[in-house]
Design a protein that fits this description.
InterPro entries: VapC45_PIN-like. It comes from Catellatospora methionotrophica. This is VapC45 PIN like domain-containing protein. Pfam families: PIN_10. It is built from 5 helices and 3 strands. By secondary structure, it is mainly alpha-helical. The protein has one domain (about 5-125). The protein is elongated, with a radius of gyration of 19 Å.
Length: about 140
């Protein structure tokens, strides 16, 4: 995981994705602060198969795109547009739901793939349905 990925996300993903070895960049000696143009090559040389990142701008920078292509390892991106506990929860939900599917696709990929995990909406309208049984009692509600 790139260092722009929240470290608590690494803990959450490791707890359920036990068939894979996951490292957060900051956990690796001497890797913190590695420029993206060097990161992909270094990761490939050390045997990593994919990098998980939130850096959507990488794919707009020609030198970084070239570095990703040259390294030949998979790139998995997700967006984290919200901060705080809500942002972390949304990121954990999106990655935990999408990463197993992405890894299964990468396992049989004959070539390097670029994967974009779809996000989850944190808005109350999209995440919650609140019912006041006094105003709109559910079927079989006593009273």
């Amino acid at each position: 995981m790139d260092e722009n990925v929240a470290r608590p996300l690494a803990v959450a993903v490791r707890s359920f994705l036990t068939a894979h070895t996951l490292h957060h960049l900051t956990e690796l000696d001497g890797w913190a602060g590695t420029p993206d143009v060097d990161l992909y090559k270094r990761a490939a040389q050390d045997g990593y198969e994919a990098i998980l990142t939130t850096d959507g701008r990488q794919m707009q920078r020609p030198n970084e795109v070239a570095a990703i292509a040259d390294a030949g390892i998979h790139r998995i991106e997700f967006s984290q547009r919200h901060s705080g506990l809500v942002g972390l929860g949304v990121a954990i939900g999106a990655v935990c739901a999408g990463l197993p599917i992405a890894l299964a696709a990468l396992e049989n990929a004959p070539t390097q793939l670029l994967v974009q995990l779809n996000g989850i909406s944190p808005t109350a309208r999209d995440r919650l349905r609140v019912t006041d049984p006094a105003m709109a009692p559910p079927k079989h509600w006593p009273g």
